[in-house]
Structure formats: structure tokens, C-alpha cells
Amino acid sequence: MSGKPKLHYTNGRGRMESIRWLLATAGVEFEECFLETKDDLTKLQKDGYLLFQQVPMVEIDGMKMVQSRAIGNYIAAKYNLYGKDLKERALIDMYVEAIIDLNELLLRHSFQPEDKKQEHLANIVDKATNRYFPVFEKVLKDHGQDFLVGNQLSRADVQLLESLLMAEECKPDILAKFPLLQSFKARISDIPTIKKFLQPGSQRKPPLQEKDLPKLMKIFH
Fold first, then answer.
1. Cα separation of 38 and 87, whole Å?
2. Which residues, in sequence order, are bridge partners of residue 32?
3. In this predicted model, what pLDDT tens digit does every residue of 39-70 receive, in sequence order?
């Protein structure tokens, strides 16, 4: 049996994408088992693979892990992306929770009806540029290091980069007023494992397309 982690989810971003980012950053090869139909999800549920009947699910180290935050915490701790002590871990958790809130907003954009898309985009831009990005710009300024926490790469850096790139997909100039975040984006993107993940042909998933929505709805509803 392969020792690689196995990721069970659809062939899209959703709540699995941050997990892909963490594994790729750690240089860990992983396999993906895509849900193509509702029957695929039902089989996992009936076979007892999904503790709470939900994906994402990751098979790793003999466990069938569910709940994306728990999976992310485990991978970050296992691969030294979770700070050097309890205080650093607390900061990483605070930053990651905020990033997850923003990511949820970004992920929901594709699911908005056409007549609500502009309003939803305006809400994303407002929250990103007034609530979230100013905080991380200040953190980088006050901390004075290349990374958000301590002096080494952490889960917080990886997930902030993921979020910045998603925000730019919605509005390409969204970082215009945040020079430190622009530098951070360039710096973290140049880390070899991340640089590789950002290349075409990697296991990084593209933005959700409207044509993919009906298939997703059939799997999950």
C-alpha cells in the first residue's frame, strides 16, 4: 500500500485546496481520489470512512481524517509549519482562522446568482481591503521579518498566500494599497516547493467555473 496521503474530494478547490497547499509546501507527494458522482460520496459514507458523513477526508498515517481545520493542524504540526512554541501556535491559529473566514467568502463567489455577483464582489473587496489585508500589512510591518510568525515559514504564510492569489483572481489590483503584502506574495511564491505548486500541471486546482456547478450540486445535494 502506498505511503502517500490520499485525498478524497471533488476535482476542485473547495475545502480541500488549503490542504493541498500545505502538503505541496512540505514537499509531500499525495494521491487524489475524486468524487465524480453522488454514489461516490454515498459509498464513502456507507463504508464508514467519513466520521461526520462529510468530505474532505484525508487518509494519512493510518487515519481517515475529516474536518478541514483538524487536517490542516495535523499536517502543519507534522511538517514543521506550526511554529516553535505554544505562543507562536496561538498566533498562527488566530491568523489562519481569519484567513479561513476570507477564503469562505471568496469560495462562495462562484455560487452567487448572476444578479448578486457584483454585490458579492463588492462585499469581498470591502472585507478584504478594510478588515483583513490592513491587519496582515501591519503584522508584517511590526514583526519586521519575512514571515508572519517567528522567523520561519508557517501554515499562516502558506494560507495567506493562497488567499491573496484568490483575491487577485476576483480583482487583479486588490493589493494596490498594500506594498508589504505585495512583497510577501512575491517572496513566499518563490519558495521552491510553492513555486513548483504554482506551475501549470501541478495538483493546484483552477477557479471554479459556472459550468461545473451542476455537477457539484448533484454530488452534495
1. 43
2. 7
3. 999 999 998 899 888 999 999 999 999 999 99
